[in-house]
């Protein structure tokens, strides 16, 4: 089987972790790792792995377009919008790791096959990947959900410069995606950067305001959803099963990383990367007609 040829745009933590996950995949091959500084840790890792590198940013995609099938954009929301104008004209697929809201929203456990009809797929946010599958199940199993609030706590050390730069976009994109997948009109997303040492694992709590909930149906569907997510994010788990108190449903989940390039506590970065790899692999299977 011919592997899907991947370029990774962005040599920071997310891009470098994606590199390791891509090279481990039986369906993907990284043919170009791109950043702006050849002496960065990410570039050094790629060179050590024998992967071709470039410090020419988006220009490297243009110069090597014939060698590339899919681009992981692991830069910033602002840059991703500029990059898409160029990559779109080249006819390439983009899996957008930023909260740029250009492409179709994707939660692999919910709509993986549907997004393959598009060439720009947005992985929303780390908090979105952790919480939206649960919000989707709540919206599916409960009537008249009035409000959903999502609170994610991550280790401060796992939030790099790009994450901090995109905080406003993070909140806006996560809230819009929760509405989209749950069909609940009022949503709120909160991100806490926890400075505790030792670092905490990513934890996300989902609150839903509901009257007369069907808790048995909810628990059954939550169990199914957790298993689906664990197929591509092994470190995802249910910390607090559905509880109904004071007119609201409360559910808490945890995401622990695989420890490929990032520490295991950086589950917030690992969950979005694992989701992105699942999308890219599905594109590869579709192109190769593998079921």
Short description:
The protein has 291 residues and is of the alpha/beta class. It contains ten helices and twelve strands.
Provide structural commentary.
The strands form 2 sheets. This protein has a 7-stranded parallel sheet, with helices on both faces. A 5-stranded mixed sheet has the order 9-8-10-12-11. It has helices spanning 13-24, 41-48, 58-63, 77-90, 108-115, 126-141, 161-165, 167-182, 215-230, 267-287, and strands at 4-9, 28-34, 53-54, 70-73, 93-96, 104-105, 120-122, 147-155, 187-194, 202-209, 236-245, 248-255. The protein has 291 residues and is an alpha/beta fold. The longest helix is centred in the last third of the chain and has 21 residues, at 267-287. The protein starts with a strand and ends with a helix. The model has no long low-confidence stretch (mean pLDDT 96).
Rounded average pLDDT = 96
- Percent of residues in helical segments? 40-55%
Unreliable runs, pLDDT <50, ≥5 residues? Answer: none
**Could you give the order of strands across the largest sheet?**
3-2-1-4-5-7-6
The assembly state of the depicted protein chains is single chain
Main beta-sheet annotation = 7 strands, parallel
What is the count of β-strands?
12
Query: Kindly, what is the distance between the CA atoms of the first and last residues, rounded to a whole number of angstroms?
Result: 13 Å
Gyration radius over CA: 19 Å
What coarse outline follows from CA principal-axis ratios?
Answer: globular
Q: Number of helix segments?
A: 10
Beta-strand content: 15-25%
The SSE string, one letter per element, is EHEHEHEHEEHEHEHHEEHEEH
User: Helix/strand-derived class?
Assistant: alpha/beta
């Amino acid at each position: 089987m011919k592997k899907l040829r991947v370029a990774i745009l962005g040599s920071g933590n997310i891009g470098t972790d994606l590199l390791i996950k891509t090279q481990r995949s039986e369906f993907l091959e990284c043919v170009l790792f791109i950043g702006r500084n050849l002496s960065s840790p990410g570039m050094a890792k790629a060179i050590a792995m024998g992967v071709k590198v470039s410090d020419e940013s988006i220009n490297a995609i243009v110069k090597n377009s014939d060698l590339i099938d899919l681009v992981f954009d692991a830069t910033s929301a602002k840059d991703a919008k500029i990059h898409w104008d160029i990559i779109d004209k080249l006819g390439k697929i983009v899996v957008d790791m930023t909260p740029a809201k250009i492409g179709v929203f994707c939660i692999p456990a919910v709509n993986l096959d549907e997004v393959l009809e598009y060439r720009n797929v947005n992985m929303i946010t780390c908090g979105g990947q952790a919480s939206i599958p649960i919000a989707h199940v709540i919206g599916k199993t409960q009537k008249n959900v009035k409000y959903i609030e999502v609170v994610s706590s991550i280790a401060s050390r796992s939030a790099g410069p790009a994450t901090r730069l995109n905080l406003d976009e993070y909140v806006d994109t996560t809230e819009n995606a929760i509405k989209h997948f749950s069909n609940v009109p009022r949503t709120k997303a909160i991100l806490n950067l926890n400075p505790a040492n030792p670092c905490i694992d990513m934890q996300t709590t989902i609150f839903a305001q509901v009257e007369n909930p069907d808790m048995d149906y909810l628990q059954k569907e939550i169990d199914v959803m957790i298993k689906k997510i664990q197929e591509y994010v092994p470190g995802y788990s249910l910390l607090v099963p559905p509880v109904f108190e004071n007119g609201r449903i409360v559910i808490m989940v945890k995401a622990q990383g695989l420890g490929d390039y990032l520490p295991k506590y950086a589950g917030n970065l690992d969950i979005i990367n694992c989701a992105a790899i699942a999308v890219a692999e599905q594109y590869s299977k579709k192109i190769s007609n593998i079921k």
